[in-house]
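The methods section describes the discrete structure representation at length, but only in general terms. Each protein is reduced to its one-letter sequence and a matching series of backbone shape codes. I believe one specimen quoted in the main text would settle the matter. An entry of this sort, consisting of the sequence and the corresponding backbone structure tokens, reads as follows.
***
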Amino acid sequence: MSNLVSALTAPMRFVARRAKRGEDAIEYETCEEFDPSKYEHLAAPFPQVDERDAKTPDVWVKRHPDLVRLTGKHPFNVEAQLPQMIDYGWVSPVNLHIVRNHGAVPQLKWSEHTITVKGNVDRKLKITMDELASMRNITFPCLVTCAGNRRKEQNQIKQSIGFNWGPCAVGNTYWTGVPLREVLKKAGVTKPGPGRRFVCFAGPQKELPKSYDNQQGGPGSYGTSIDMETALDPSCDVILAIKQNGKELHPDHGYPVRVLIPGYIGGRMVKWLTEIEVTGEESDNFYHFNDNRVLPSTVDAEKANAEKWWFKPEYIINNLNINGAIAYPWHNELVDVERKSYTLKGYAYSGGGRKIIRVEVSLDQGMSWRLAPFFTEEKPRWAAGSSGDRAKHWCWFLWELDVTVSEMAEAKEIIFRAWDQSQNSMPERPTWNVMGMLNNPWYRVRVHKEGSMLRFEHPTQAGPDKDEGWMVNMANKAGGHLNWGWGGSGTPAVP
């Protein structure tokens, strides 16, 4: 475990630049030791087009063939196999990073693309990519994850309206971009006020089939919004990103520019950014209302539509919740019982900049727990680590725990849970919701003894064609519904 100790005792250094005369009196932080050449191999796209894209609108986009496709050939919604991602370490490769696309990838050119800044601003702007790139930019690491991470588990309880994300709807990379507050300042917006309560973002028009008449962003656009306080707060690190791991963005990740909002769900980070609008009300874009909500478990899709639950502001989700998973042992992995030891591995993260402070593993179905060492290569941004909520942690934490194979052989399951600095923890049971979002119960891997080998079984496997996993089998035996997932009888524990 020496690598874990060294990572904890030797974090990255950061350098601060004092604002020049006329700028706000704050300190801007960026990674002093970020060397793009060090991460070139993690930024490179796959060298050729996947044959599965040959007859789709994305035939020109190069993609890694190992990515698990969750919605067929098109649109492109994918995650890596979790062990493959973990094997790369703390910094993820771009070509295995989560992708969430609602439609075709727009073919945009750096030389032609612009961002319009409008609404309740003092100066309307049309910013070219060269102009954006010439502005002061910062680089820092940040986790991006979909609010639907681990949704396939929810779909075994009861089918949600979302597709089957597994436990790797994540990616932890370095991002380079211009602080949003700098762009707003050029437009004359420096503080919230009447008519300046929200910042709305939108991608290209006529990109998607669904939209409202006269919606923010225009017809067929993907749009959403954040509050002005978050947009202007330097410690929230909201940027217009133009690079990932030191290279220009891959088309699937928003080339030439996307919004990055650390600690938030990926659904707020609009790709292929075309428009920024300052308004007094939140976005009225179709996707702002009809996506990324956690409704009560008693509300199904029919009720949500009939009673307009999508428009109730208290159910919108912005910050991520605490979550994580076990990567090793992986699903159907075999371990010889004669082997002496094994290293369990996984990840944990939380939203809002909250630090993971505790990782625990149980081999006796939650009767007792042992602490697992964990690490990050991120130094807290904007404040000392002991200063609480002002010290921002935007990245995932990787954890490992050495155990004996003999004690694994005696276990019915391996259980993982984590805690963050606000004492948020992963619950024992899931709570179903109609969108299947923010699913974060204890992660359980079952142990099966098969002759001289141990075989491990995860709850599900990502994708529509993977009808396997202990939770899938349990749901099939129960007729498709698991009542313990929404307050009924039963338990997820091994019988």
User: Anything to note?
Assistant: Residues 1-28 have pLDDT under 50 and may be disordered. The longest strand covers residues 170-179. The CA atoms of residues 135 and 178 lie 7 Å apart.
